[in-house]
Every structure is written in structure tokens, then in C-alpha cells.
């Protein structure tokens, strides 16, 4: 390889790395190497739509139990100051953005690079990359007055691209307009009517897209599955998403079976609340078979569960 070729490759690497502050594909693959499924062109894990659909029935308790057993102890964030559509469930693949307090020299350097790429307004750069089924996850370092980078215009753009709302550690504006977007289920830190980066008042700057970012006490990676419901948000690593869903479905079925048998008086609470005997496990398998067309879990999933059972 000639010296000029090496220089060209180095330049190409830094060009790819720098586009709108994005993580490189190589770094994305490195940081998400436990994921072995489909990926987007930039390397971001693409958890299947079927898993996302089934995730909407998962509770935080179920997701937390699976992740904790796998060593992921800090994947749940609560304490949100404002929730849009609090009775809905937010599920999607994380696209992350990280902002920091504005510093003129760094902000201007980033802004100039963006302008050379035909981009205007750093707050819109990550939005342009959203795909259907994504959730825009933003570390806005909790800034309140002078912090909002999202109002109803950007919110409509986010929803048009992703079909989802946001998880936003900072203040938003135009909350009335955002609530008018039918399915814009979102978790944010606060509301404030101000704008970010008004003339002479540099408050924020974008320093990363799809890089690991922090939301409250959670480290979030691009491609994580976002589960927002009941006042909190779980961030499920892509490689654990299917396990979380399947475990949740099994727990749901066992609870249905146990509650029915308790009402029937067939077993005592002590028998159901402790490790099940072989007799109960066999009864459960037969119950699944007998009610496979009536249960709120897809028949195909129940058949997979039965295949793995030994009773």
C-alpha cells in the first residue's frame, strides 16, 4: 500500500467519523458486538419489528429482572418531570444524541463542519437520521431555561420520520403543540418556553450522534430497545430484547394459569407461590395446549415455549 493510499484512507476515516458528529460504523460494530442480528447501514442494531411489537406488553419488572440477571443493573430511568401521553406505551430502537453546554470555539468548529456538509441547525442533525420505529433519545444535560432544542416543529419532524416520541433529558417547548401529535408518547425532564442558542446566548452544542450517552443513571447505546410506560423508561440492550420478550410472555402465561387454578381451588397459594412441582408443571403444559387458540400470546410463540418444556 502506497503512502498516498494510506493518507487517503485516513482522510476517509475522519470524514466518515465526523459527519454530523456520528459514531463510525467500525466503532458501532465494536461497541455492539454482542448483537448478531440485522443492522442498519451505519451498523446500528436493528431489533426486528416483531420483537418491538411484542415488547409493548412487557412490564418494567419483567425487563428489569432479565437484565439484572445478565449483569445490567442500571437500565431503568424514572423521575421524569413531564410525560406526553402517559397512558400509552413507547417502544422503539434508540437513536442517541448527546449535547453539552455551549462553548463558542468548539460549537463554531462543529457548526462550520456541518455547514460544509450542507447542514443547518445542530438540533436537527440527529432528527434527519431517524428511521421508522426509532425513538430519539437525547442527553440534553437536564438544561431548563434556554435549553429546549425541541418544539412542535421539530417534534412533528421526529414523528414523521419515526412514528414515535422522544426520551429527552432536558426541557422542551411548545408542549401544547406536541400534545396535539396523536402518538407522540414522550418522557422529558421539564417544560420551558425559551429557545436554545438565541443570539448572543450559546447554551448547547451537539457533540455526538449514536454514541453511548447517559440518560439519568443509565448508559444508553444506539440500537437499545426503549420501553417507556407507567412513568419510567427501560433501555434494553439489543442482544437481550428477545430474551426479555420471551421471558415476559412465559411469566404472563404462568400467572394466568396460576390465577385460574387458584380460583378453581385446584392448588393452594403456597403451591403456586413456590417452585412448582412436576405435577403442576405437567398441568401447565397441558393447559397451554388446551388453550393455545385462546391465549393473548401468539400461537407460534406458545408452540415455541412448549417445544422447550420437559413436562
Give the name of the CATH superfamily of the largest domain. Ribonuclease E inhibitor RraA/RraA-like
Biggest sheet: strands, sense, closure?
9 strands, mixed
The helix/strand series, from N terminus to C terminus, equals HHHHEEEHEHEHEEEEEEHHHH
Compute the separation of the termini in Å: 62 Å
Strand content: 15-25%
Count up the domains.
2
CATH topology tier name of the largest domain: Glucose Oxidase, domain 1
List keywords for this structure.
about 300 residues, alpha/beta, Glucose Oxidase, domain 1, 2 domains, about 40% helix, about 20% strand, elongated, disordered N terminus
Structure description:
- The chain is α/β, with parallel strands linked by helices and about 300 residues long.
- The protein folds into two domains: about 230 residues, Ribonuclease E inhibitor RraA/RraA-like (Glucose Oxidase, domain 1), CATH 3.50.30.40; about 70 residues, no CATH class.
- Helices cover about 40% and strands about 20% of the residues.
Amino acid at each position: 500500500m502506497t503512502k498516498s493510499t494510506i493518507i487517503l484512507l485516513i482522510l476517509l476515516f475522519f470524514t466518515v467519523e465526523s459527519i454530523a458528529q456520528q459514531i463510525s460504523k467500525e466503532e458501532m460494530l465494536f461497541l455492539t458486538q454482542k448483537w448478531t442480528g440485522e443492522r442498519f447501514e451505519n451498523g446500528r442494531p436493528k431489533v426486528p419489528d416483531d420483537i418491538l411489537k411484542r415488547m409493548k406488553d412487557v412490564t418494567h419488572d419483567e425487563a428489569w429482572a432479565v437484565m439484572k440477571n445478565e449483569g445490567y443493573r442500571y437500565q431503568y430511568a424514572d423521575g421524569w418531570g413531564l410525560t406526553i401521553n402517559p397512558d400509552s406505551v413507547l417502544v422503539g430502537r434508540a437513536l442517541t444524541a448527546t449535547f453539552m453546554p455551549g462553548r463558542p470555539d468548539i460549537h463554531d468548529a462543529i457548526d462550520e463542519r456541518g455547514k460544509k456538509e450542507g447542514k443547518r441547525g445542530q438540533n436537527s442533525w440527529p432528527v434527519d437520521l431517524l428511521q421508522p420505529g426509532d425513538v430519539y433519545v437525547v442527553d440534553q444535560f437536564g438544561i431548563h431555561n434556554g435549553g429546549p432544542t425541541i418544539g412542535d416543529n421539530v417534534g412533528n419532524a421526529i414523528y414523521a420520520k419515526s412514528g414515535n416520541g422522544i426520551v429527552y433529558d432536558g426541557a422542551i417547548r411548545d408542549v401544547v403543540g406536541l400534545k396535539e401529535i396523536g402518538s407522540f408518547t414522550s418522557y422529558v425532564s421539564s417544560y420551558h418556553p425559551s429557545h436554545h442558542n438565541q443570539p448572543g446566548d450559546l447554551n448547547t452544542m451537539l457533540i455526538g450522534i449514536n454514541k453511548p450517552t447517559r440518560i439519568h443513571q443509565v448508559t444508553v447505546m444506539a440500537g437499545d430497545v426503549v420501553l417507556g410506560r407507567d412513568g419510567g423508561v427501560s433501555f434494553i440492550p439489543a442482544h437481550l430484547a428477545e430474551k426479555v420478550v420471551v421471558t415476559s410472555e412465559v411469566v404472563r402465561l404462568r400467572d394466568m394459569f396460576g390465577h385460574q387454578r387458584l380460583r378453581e381451588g385446584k392448588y393452594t397459594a403456597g403451591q403456586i407461590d413456590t417452585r412448582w412441582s412436576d405435577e403442576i408443571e405437567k398441568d401447565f403444559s397441558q393447559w397451554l395446549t388446551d388453550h393455545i387458540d385462546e391465549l393473548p400470546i401468539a400461537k407460534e410463540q406458545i408452540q415455541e415455549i412448549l417445544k422447550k418444556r420437559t413436562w
